[in-house]
Amino acid sequence: MPVDENGGRPPAASTPLARDFFDRLAHEVAPDLLGRVLVHGPVALRITEVEAYGVPGEDPASHTYRGRTPRNAVMFGPPGHLYVYFTYGMHFCANLTCLPEGVGSGVLLRAGEVISGAETALARRSAGSGRPVREADLARGPARLAVALGLAREHNGLDACGPGSLSVTEGEPAKAASILSGPRTGVSSGKETPWRFWIDGDPTVSPHRPHVPRRR
DNA sequence: CTAGAGATGGACT
DNA sequence: GTCCATCTCTAGG
């Protein structure tokens, strides 16, 4: 039995966008990002793995589950913006908002293949850490991706579609036949939803790790 | 290869 | 106080 997931109180009231509706949107919008190219300064990467995070009261794993806060405000904003959050006391992870303003959702950028600016990405990933970084590992995992791309706190809210330092380009969208889906990585709830999408066989896709509760 | 634990800060109960 | 949408290193098979 899981511990009470909501502090003894019911989740925030559902929006009109019910779980099944979000589910349909997630299965269109999130995988559509696969194969597209994200450019930030000198580094460009081809997105190979994403996860959808859903709406208040419907997705217990989402930062928006309990409603809007200063931290998750960007997820309630218009689509095409970056939601960058700080976690585990040392990592940043980046999401793109993809659904209409007010919905409260995002797509976590979990992994990518660096296709230009590899030297910059390598320098960033190697900084402070000893061992050599394999090319396929440059952006393999959400926190690594953020480092490789040079994304941090100051990029929260950045417009990824307008004139800015970040942009999502068409790239070559992954063919549907090469896209697989499954449970999300490292989440302690909402395990049943197959909202992780990745390009089958791509070496830059991160290994799936189930959530492990902290001890002591 | 797998399993376990430390790092480290902030959002939230 | 507790829990992280993680990463890296170490020990062991």
From TrEMBL:
EC number: 3.2.2.-
Family statement: Belongs to the DNA glycosylase MPG family.
Protein name in UniProt: Putative 3-methyladenine DNA glycosylase
NCBIfam families associated with the record: 3mg (TIGR00567), PRK00802.1-3 (NF002003)
Gene3D superfamilies for this protein: Methylpurine-DNA glycosylase (MPG)
SUPFAM superfamilies noted in UniProt: FMT C-terminal domain-like
GO molecular function, one term: hydrolase activity, acting on glycosyl bonds
Keyword DNA repair: yes
PANTHER family, sorted: DNA-3-METHYLADENINE GLYCOSYLASE
The UniProt record lists the keyword DNA repair: yes
Keyword list, A-Z: DNA damage, DNA repair, Glycosidase, Hydrolase
Lineage: Bacteria, Bacillati, Actinomycetota, Actinomycetes, Streptosporangiales
